[in-house]
């Protein structure tokens, strides 16, 4: 069986590696002229780490990223609302990692080139259109790409085509050309990376504030940690005026901006364990993103074509789940393809398993997901508190954390369960 994967991001490359391990012939087509270590930090939750570990990548991820030990939520006054261990410290069989997105993607790219062969990883080829070569159910998919170097059309065919080409997916647009624009949350994100002294235990992730003003930070470099320093990935988030009801044009996404755009809102966020203005000041570059998602689709699969990752279910960056869900998608898709000789049925089974699960995460993230605890603290005690349990009972905090883990598939029981 041949699998054509449109998109060389984390989801697409992971899928290629999983196909290779399962004996499926995969080929990756990426629109960018070259893959580069771009982006900032991401979290790899245990259910994603388990899948990457089965690909033999855990040691290399551990060498470059931080093994996350805990997650804490704070209010805008720096008072702790909720704290929980993460990864091995929480009793999982595998760690949770915080890593640089670009470094992880380059690791996947290098390993994919080694295992599949460089001739099966194509850059500079943008998806343009597709069709089947016949009317019967087993007809392969014929697709056309546009080579960026010279504008030449390139033809290909495969038994299955997977759109793993991100939130602006051209494959998704083929099936949903109208009414599928990103849905803007009226919140903007500013992301940066700053080298600084470690905070808390040097392996912690924290979020502070509430849904209209939030700051997130976590270290992402194990080599730097060994030198007594931290490379800290951070995200500042603010609600923008109500008249800004549409996201900025795509050309403005990920643009470099000056800290003056947002930093004043965090100028007093200095506490005895962290200096947020100093983190902002120390960043070499700051990038601006609209916080967007898309409404869940009624279907992903059309004949022998399906979607994966952000192409299928773009979600707010809440709960550290975007990349993790793409990796889990890949595992389920390969399991389904190798579990039956009926390819069409396999793709529908994959969709039946993953579409409702990820749609639930998209909708839950619109309600702030596990970060709901920060919003509750803001609504119930905007001036702060002396005892969080007088504001939010511990049972309520535990229930919010557990409910999201179960929905997203990284509760301990799910991660400990044997693979399908």
Q: Explain this structure to me?
A:
The protein has about 425 residues and is α+β, with helices and mostly antiparallel strands. The chain has a domain at about 1-40 and about 100-180 and about 295-370: FAD/NAD(P)-binding domain, CATH 3.50.50. The protein has 12 helices and 21 strands. The chain has helices spanning about 10-20, 45-55, 60-65, 100-115, 170-175, 220-225, 275-280, 320-340, 345-365, 370-380, 395-410, 410-415; strands spanning about 1-5, 25-30, 40-45, 65, 70-75, 80-85, 95-100, 120, 125-130, 140-145, 155-160, 160-165, 185-195, 205-210, 215-220, 230-240, 255, 270, 275, 285-295, 305. Strands 6-5-14-15-16-13-20-17 form an 8-stranded mixed beta sheet. A hairpin with a 2-residue loop joins strand 14 (about 205-210) and strand 15. It is globular, with a radius of gyration of 21 Å.
Can you identify the CATH class of one domain? Alpha Beta
> How can the largest sheet be summarized?
8 strands, mixed
Helix count, DSSP H or I runs of 4 or more residues: 12
Task: Give the mean pLDDT.
Answer: 94
- How are strands sequenced across the largest beta sheet? 6-5-14-15-16-13-20-17
The low-confidence parts are none
Number of strands: 21
* CATH superfamily caption of one domain: FAD/NAD(P)-binding domain
Based on helices, strands and strand pairing, what is the structural class?
A: alpha+beta
* CATH fold label of one domain: FAD/NAD(P)-binding domain
The CA-CA distance between the termini, in Å, is 20 Å
Share in helix? 25-40%
**Radius of gyration over all CA atoms, rounded:** 21 Å
How much β-strand is present in the residues? 25-35%
Shape-level CATH architecture of one domain? 3-Layer(bba) Sandwich
């Amino acid at each position: 069986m041949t699998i054509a994967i449109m998109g060389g991001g984390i989801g697409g490359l992971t899928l290629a590696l999983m196909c290779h391990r399962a004996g499926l012939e995969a080929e990756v087509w990426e629109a960018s002229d070259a893959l580069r270590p771009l982006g900032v930090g991401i979290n790899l939750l245990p259910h994603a780490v388990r899948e990457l570990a089965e690909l033999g990548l855990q040691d290399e991820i551990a060498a470059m990223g931080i093994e996350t030990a805990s997650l804490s939520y704070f209010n805008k006054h720096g008072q702790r609302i909720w704290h929980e261990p993460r990864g091995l410290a929480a009793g999982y069989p595998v760690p949770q990692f915080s890593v640089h997105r670009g470094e992880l993607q380059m690791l996947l790219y290098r390993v994919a080139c080694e295992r599949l062969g460089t001739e099966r990883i194509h850059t500079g080829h943008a998806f343009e259109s597709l069709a089947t070569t016949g009317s019967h159910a087993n007809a392969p998919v014929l697709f056309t790409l546009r080579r960026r170097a010279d504008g030449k059309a390139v033809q290909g065919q495969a038994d299955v085509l997977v759109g793993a080409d991100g939130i602006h997916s051209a494959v998704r647009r083929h099936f949903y050309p109208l009414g599928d624009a990103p849905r803007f949350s009226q919140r903007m994100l500013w992301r940066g990376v700053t080298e600084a002294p470690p905070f808390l235990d040097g392996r912690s992730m924290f979020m502070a504030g509430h849904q209209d003003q939030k700051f997130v930070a976590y270290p992402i470099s194990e080599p730097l940690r060994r030198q007594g320093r931290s490379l800290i990935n951070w995200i500042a988030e603010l609600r923008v005026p109500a008249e800004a009801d549409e996201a900025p044009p795509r050309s403005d996404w990920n643009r470099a901006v000056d800290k003056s755009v947002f930093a004043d809102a965090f100028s007093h966020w200095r506490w005895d364990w962290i200096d947020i203005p100093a983190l902002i000041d120390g960043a070499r570059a700051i990038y601006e993103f609209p916080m967007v998602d898309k409404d869940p689709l009624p279907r992903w699969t059309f004949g022998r074509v399906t979607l994966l990752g952000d192409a299928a279910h773009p979600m707010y960056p809440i709960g550290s789940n975007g990349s993790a869900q793409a990796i889990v998608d890949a595992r389920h898709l390969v399991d389904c393809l190798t579990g039956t000789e009926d390819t069409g049925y396999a793709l529908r089974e994959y969709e039946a398993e993953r579409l409702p699960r990820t749609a639930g995460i998209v909708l839950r993230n619109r309600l702030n997901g596990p970060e709901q605890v920060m919003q509750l603290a803001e609504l119930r005690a905007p001036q702060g508190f002396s005892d969080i349990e007088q504001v939010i009972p511990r049972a309520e905090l535990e229930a919010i954390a557990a409910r999201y883990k179960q929905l997203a598939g990284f509760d301990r029981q799910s991660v400990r369960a044997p693979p399908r």
